[in-house]
Amino acid sequence: NVPQKVNELPHGAALSCKKISIWGNQTDEKGKPLHEDVKLWMCDPVECIKDLIGNPLFKDHMVYAPA
Q1: Which Pfam families match (predicted)?
Q2: Domain boundaries defined on the chain
Q3: pTM for this model (two decimals)
Q4: Which long-range contacts (CB under 8 A, 24 or more apart) does 7-16 make?
Q5: Residue 26: CB partners within 8 Å, gap ≥ 6?
Q6: Confidence of residue 13 (pLDDT cuts 50, 70, 90)
């Protein structure tokens, strides 16, 4: 089962999802603006950076000072 295997992978920063509507500048045949409902996935940027810095896979690729 693929979703179960995905859930077993190591997790990084927690993701959250918010449904939003995006309104465009085009109109339908009745002149009503077109829109699309989409999912916006996001995470806390501080938690994301903590995860990246704490990940041993990246230890040889991190630079903490200007090059």
Answers
A1: Plavaka (PF18759)
A2: 2-59
A3: 0.55
A4: 12/43, 12/48, 12/51, 12/52, 12/55, 13/43, 13/44, 13/47, 13/48, 13/50, 13/51, 14/43, 14/44, 14/47, 15/41, 15/42, 15/43, 16/41, 16/42, 16/43
A5: 33, 34
A6: confident
Residue 21 contacts by C-beta under 8 Å, 6 or more apart in sequence? 35, 36, 37, 38
Decide: 22 and 38 in contact? Cβ < 8 Å: yes
Q: Which residues pair with 19 in a beta bridge?
A: 39
Beta bridge partners of 41: 17
DSSP, collapsed to helix, strand or coil, labels residue 38 as strand
